[in-house]
Amino acid sequence: MRSAFDKLISGAGIALVVTLLAAGGLLSWGHVFIGNQVHDQLSMQNIDMPSGAALSSLPKADANALKPYAGSSLDTGPEAKAYANHFILVHLGEMAGGKTYSQVSAQYVAMTPAQQASTAGQQLGATRQSLFMGDTLRGLLLYGYAFATIGTIAGIAAFVSFGAAAFLLLLVALGFWHARKVELSARRVVTGRVPQPA
Description:
Helix content: over 70%
Order of helices and strands: HHHHHHH
Radius of gyration: 31 Å
Shape: elongated
Oligomer: single chain
Strand content: under 5%
Structural class: mainly alpha
Distance between the termini: 23 Å
Largest sheet: none
């Protein structure tokens, strides 16, 4: 009876090992796929991380956040986040005195056509357009960072899945070994050979 129970539990363990290996394989695929996509899409933009004067002109906290990537090509999620939050955002804030695109746009839309045609109106319209483009680029870079983070999480989950499968496989092997040991002991008892204590 004990041997049958061990085999049943070990059989269920094998099914779980197969499930964990399949999950680990899919998570690994997701990790590699996302990593490649993020790298390829960001590389196509040909953005170089700020260095030299472009870096030193930033506020100290922003410059420090960008220093590890200075002069490299922007092709990873962490670089995309740093560029979006510590370079683009700084310049967007300087461009409109801290106002957001929606605030500047609302101000521009509230103008009459004559006011929009004036020099001040045209400058505000150009600022509005620049803020829109900057916010769009920043948002896209942060999406790249988000996907890169998901890829990293998938890689960690794959590692955990494979580790759990290996550990469970060891337990399954021990379960079958124990079932075999119990069977042999039972046969010895039935045939009249009482096993000697170890």
